[in-house]
Amino acid sequence: MSTAGAADPPGVLASLGTGLRLIAGWFSVVIGVLNLLAELDSPPEAGYLLFHGVLVAGGALLIGLPGWVRPTGCLAAAGAAVAGMVLAALPASRPACCLTSFAERHGYPFSVVARDAGRAWQVDGARLLADLLFWGYAGLFALMLVVLVRRAGKGGP
Q1: Residue 28: pLDDT above 90?
Q2: Which UniProt keywords are listed (predicted)?
């Protein structure tokens, strides 16, 4: 029996990583599409539409990735997520959603920290996770763009 062309089966960690990537991708696509459909009867809010568009596109990208991303890629996407969160939270914002009872709000696309003058900061944990997901996908898009540019520069597929 010939073993030419035979490949070793993926290990447990590779299979687990692929499974988690696919679950996260499909979850993002389904939630993004359902939330966009649920809002068809109301006037569009730019931040809301952008968030769910990024959720759908990021989920589709996760589903379509050919294999597990190297740890350096994961670190780059995580770094971009944190950097995006910090930079988006620095200026005061007035999005239509979230923590609207406070005078000073920070975060994009959702307000994640807010306070009234002379009061303690309030953190919205659920919106913080949503913003982290948004900026994580933004980092993934940037990472994929860098990979495509590098491949084009090398003349590879």
Answers
A1: yes
A2: Membrane, Transmembrane, Transmembrane helix
